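Reviewers of the previous submission asked for a worked example of the structure-prediction workflow described in the proposal, so we include one complete record here. The input consisted solely of the amino acid sequence. No template or homolog information was supplied to the procedure at any stage.
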Amino acid sequence: MGRKPLSDEQRQKTRAKILDAAREIFLDKGPEGLSIRPVAERVGISPMTVYLYFENRQAIIIALVKE
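From that input alone, the workflow returned the following structure tokens.
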């Protein structure tokens, strides 16, 4: 028995939460202070889950800049 797959809406909400947390850290500590683990902790997910949405820290920064 596995987990039920997330809906597109749930995935979009999680991605938005990741970006919100990353933005807060980025604004507080700058790009050098942004890392996956603190982002995951703020969202309440595992660091590995962040990698399901973003390839790496740089991909998060690029997404923030695009916003």
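The chain has a mean pLDDT of 94. We consider this example representative of the routine output the project will generate in years two and three.
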